[in-house]
Amino acid sequence: MRWALLLAGYDYKLIYRPGNLHANADGLSRLPLDREKGEGSSQIRSINLLNVDVFPVTVDEVKVETRRDPELSKVLNRILKGWSDRDRKDPELKQFSGKEDELTTDYGCVLWGGRVVIPCSLRNKVIDLLHEVHPGMARMKALARGYVWWPNLDKQMEERVSNCGMCQANQRNPAKAPIHPWERAVRPWQRIHIDHAGPIAGKTYLILVDTFSKWMDAARVASTSAAETMKMLRKNFATHGLPEILVSDNGSGFVSEEFKTFLKRNSIKHVTTAPYHPSSNGAVERYVQTFKNMLSKMNKGNLEEQLDRCLFQYRITSHPSTGVSPAEKLMKRQLRSALDAMHPRFVNKEKELTHGKLREFKVGDRVLTRGYGEDKWLMGAVMERLGNTNYIVEVGGMRLHRHVDQIIALTEPTLIPQ
Fold this sequence. Notes:
This protein is α+β, with helices and mostly antiparallel strands. The chain has three domains: 59-169, Endonuclease III, domain 1 (Orthogonal Bundle); 191-331, Nucleotidyltransferase, domain 5; 356-418, SH3 type barrels (Roll). The protein has helices at residues 2-7, 59-68, 70-81, 85-88, 123-130, 137-145, 153-162, 165-169, 226-240, 257-265, 282-296, 303-316, 326-331, 350-353, and strands at residues 33-34, 39-40, 103-106, 109-112, 115-117, 148-149, 191-200, 203-210, 216-221, 245-248, 269-272, 366-370, 377-385, 390-395, 398-403, 407-409. The strands form four sheets. It has a five-stranded mixed beta sheet with strand order 9-8-7-10-11, with helices on both faces. A five-stranded antiparallel beta sheet has the order 15-14-13-12-16, with no helix packed on it. The chain is rod-shaped and about 140 Å long.
């Protein structure tokens, strides 16, 4: 019955063919053999199979239904005879107002530009054709604009899609809402964000970021379990103290009862982001990506050495959002690096470090130098100057190394301090 209905939509001619001339009809399994040559035919045969769930609307149907349609039959008549001012004011033709000069006819059908104006009786069928493979609202409208039109076409297509369970179940996500920023932290370690990064070279890392200073810490963990997470956090908290708020996603290690108890005992408020919505924890997500990029570009030393280098360089680099380095923002001082060795401000100026005028002695000066035996002070003479503060003093034939604090200038040879 199904094939009979399908063939009814075509014009065909029946030709008698004797049975002995029939070939194998199952062309999908093997092509018919050439009986004359006794071998497979060299002719290429193309077999197309299309299952059609909705029968197409033919131009003959449109032609017939256009003449039966109360509105379109009037429109067709006006196209052939011309439009008058009275026709343009006709309530039944109001929906075609403004399109009179764009409407034409061909083969008894009404056309608007290159689109066929579908009679009312065939519109649901055309909607079915347009919606056959559930293309979605936008693609369905785009397809229709290339072939058909009638008043309120877009509205009917929207209703069809909105009432289709298949389309609704597979529709795209709605437009993303503007990201609501976190409340700005006003002091160090007020709020920290944590997340896991990896695997990187087969290793997993726990990333921690302080939102006030942008200080980032990272440590390799054996797993994403609560025990490994708490182990890393304890070391960090021992250095920087306990945060007020800790933000994480809904990873199993972060939402376990063990981890919740750990935070509760340390009076830390735990805030989790929406599941499957990583941008809610975007503060640390960006740093995870930064961490991965830095680590991927390092190729010297083992992975732990690379990690230390990456973190150190990040911490001493000025952050665009604060204008200072994370270290300076957090510790109120800049960490010394190898780059500081070239700057004059780090030259060790000993004279500037003394509280008063530096005492100096010349070779040959008679002095008293500190003794560490029976005599507290010994009389001698400066034999050599070793630096700004160190001298060699000769006492009774012995050469003693003494600091300037252990030497007194001798002005009265008979006066020996006790």
